[in-house]
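Structure, all two chains, one model.
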Amino acid sequence: SQTIHQWPATLVQPVGSPLSLECTVEGTSNPNLYWYRQAAGRGLQLLFYSVGIGQISSEVPQNLSASRPQDRQFILSSKKLLLSDSGFYLCAFVTAGDAYNEQFFGPGTRLTVL
Amino acid sequence: AQSVTQPDIHITVSEGASLELRCNYSYGATPYLFWYVQSPGQGLQLLLKYFSGDTLVQGIKGFEAEFKRSQSSFNLRKPSVHWSDAAEYSCAVDRSGAGSYQLTFGKGTKLSVIP
């Protein structure tokens, strides 16, 4: 079966510190991968998506970057966190090849930047 | 730019009452529309989606939604609410318009259910 994992579940980091959030998918090959963020009082916002290894599209200019070093691994990073980076981060995947497949979301990471 | 508006931030209904959650979208072409639910401690779960065809879409947990192009709406309904339906509900549109799941979400509506 297809599963998606994210870690850590919660994270508290000081301003200016680096960030690395990891997402892995099991049970499927060549998925499309996505990073979303939900800031306080706002809807989920698409940050990055990837259709293959090394292929990253950024949706909004920001302090974050994403990488896809392996087919089923998606990493969200920052060199120096800002207060505005606080939020709930969700990773998601879709099995490629069929536009009618469902998009599955991970459990999320709650990031607080102090 | 595509946008999704959910005008109700918080709705409270009595158990057994009917429910309608509103969603309006702004999109130039035929939209791909979704409703998701997130319960406390649970991940985001797809309730239903509309890609084409019948404008009344049936989903899981007894929910349905109706696509109305003339009103740019995709409202979610349930005839009789259960206490377990208390959760956050989010409407979304696929900004790519091609089923690639680059979703734009509304701010969500929190549903509370009174026993």
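Residues 3-113 of chain A form a domain with the Immunoglobulin-like fold (CATH 2.60.40.10).
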